[in-house]
Hints:
It is an enzyme of class 2 (transferase). By secondary structure, the protein is an alpha/beta fold. Helices cover 38% and strands 17% of the residues. It has a domain at 61-124: Immunoglobulins (Immunoglobulin-like, Sandwich), CATH 2.60.40. Strand 8 (108-114) and strand 9 (117-124) form a beta hairpin.
Amino acid sequence: MNDRSLRTRARKAGLATAWRDAAGVSHRVGADTLRGLLRVLEDGAKLEEDALPPMVVGQAGVATVLPLRASSERLAFRLECEDGSVISGHAGRSSDGCARLPAISDLGYHRLEIAGRRTVLAIAPARCRTVADATGGARGWGLSVQLHALRARHDAGIGHFGALADLARQAAAAGADALAISPVHAMFSARPAQFSPYSPSSRLFLNVLLADMRSWFSTHDIGAMMRRLRISPQAARALEDAPLIDWPQAAELRLRMLRGLYDDVIRPAPPAELTAFVAAHGRALHCHAVFEALQAHQLGRGPRGGNWRAWPGALRDPASPEVARFAEERHHDVCFHLFLQWLAARGLHGAGQAARDAGMRIGLIADLAVGTDPAGSQCWANQDDFLIGGSVGAPPDPLGPLGQNWGLTTFSPGALRAHGYRAFIDTLRATLTRQGGVRIDHVMGLERLWVIPEGASAADGAYLSFPGRDLMRLVALESHRHQAVVIGEDLGTVPPGFRTRAAQRSIMGMNVLWFQRDAQGAFLPPDKWGANDVAMTTTHDLPTVAGWWQATDIGWRKSLRQLARGTRAEDALAARARDRDALWAALHPPAAPDPPPVTPDGAARVVDAAARFVGTAASALAILPLEDALGLPEQPNLPGTISGHPNWQQRYPPGPPVLERPDAARRLDLLRTARNRV
């Protein structure tokens, strides 16, 4: 195959054959990269030529052009709406000869019959639910929290949904409208050493290690089980008191306890609530539970058992007789995992209800990870939906000169269209259930993602396009159905015009303090921040305010040899000193013109000023991470590291409830007062 035909095939498959980096330099995608990605894309599900897709996505009040050739100027159609009403009429013909439906105002997923064919017509609102919709026009504020880092009595070393409910009540009492949480997607019960919340096994289900056993079982039951299993109270307390989460040890203890409680209390007489939950979630939940049991069994045979693609052939197919036989033989193991999902869902529902009952006008804001681990249950159960054999990441840029490979896969654009966007809608709904909002990680993925062929370097990838208009419309429709606001994590390399298109759908971007600067490097005044975005001091991947002021992040980068190529630690520290002056020039109150010292006490003053500053931003919503409310110097995650830094292991300080601490209460008051003055 010559280069021209290869590139023609690539463009037809949605691959960009060239890309422009952050400096504006154009790069040509290599032939090996295109061949590797085409093998993945062309083997996947796709629509037949001239087929009417199983779903067409339109917008309320706007005529919908169908990918269907119109044989006449008047083509009869029948639309059965979700509410049972029927709309009949005639489609016209568009300028390119396709059938053109008149504008439909009824929102929802409707059944369309036209020219002897059937499809689902999804009609979305023009925009997502906004903060103003939720607050009656007022600007909102809230907190963000790493859920696993919370502390509660007898938590066995990992934060849980019960602790989240307690924090939601505290935050609501302080006047918060929202509480943004880290991802709670299902992880791998048999692989607790894989604990990054952004590398899930499935985005359809929940991380069972976050379940709060006290949401169903009595203190007596739990104590009796600890004695029966001979679990030392001292060992459990050591895990609870540790400054870092020992994921393998804490997970082993928690799962032993839960299995004992299941066997003794639940298995003899399953509650009706559990039975109803299992029935409601059907095949998808059953497949996830079977996968969990099957992966544990395969791992018992060796480390290769952790990846289903290395299992015996028959076990790679979730519909095979061998998998069905395994599920029958290990029925109680499968049922245990069904129980775990029910208990976790019960806890998350309780936390969301606690937020609403306490008066939050938005409530919990969930976090939707950008992709899924290809070795996980969602890919195993729905192999046609994913680009298995390709991983997503980012091209080389100043923050990652070699590019980034996140080790995750994503949906196949062809399969999305061929299957009526089923996988996307199911994943979005699973995240939005019982939530007041969602943060979509790497939201640019709605339009394009950097995809890397298996075995290639992160730099040897290409941008793959997605049906962005349809996906944004579906986000707006699900936002409306769930009454949820939508935040898009739009940091990094953003496609031209993307932020404008997202804003038109009321998908809020993220205005992070560190990046709100003008061309000369001065920090922008808060009234210049995006009015329809979310203002925040920092994110989980960036330094906390106290850590930034004290250059804690630079210290980590130096010790781990993670400084940008060609950058000396001395140069980085000198640049930070200049940035401190620039930040304080923007933050400081008139009575304190001189920057505070680079000490913990000095950093605390800067955190106070930053909380006030972000509160005065013109943005629709202001979010203060709990790390900054507490003035902590360490960030939850240091991107680019897989060892050396305690990513996703840090816990919040022990002691009184976090928001009752004087420093946290003071900063929340500063933030709240500033919001009320906007």
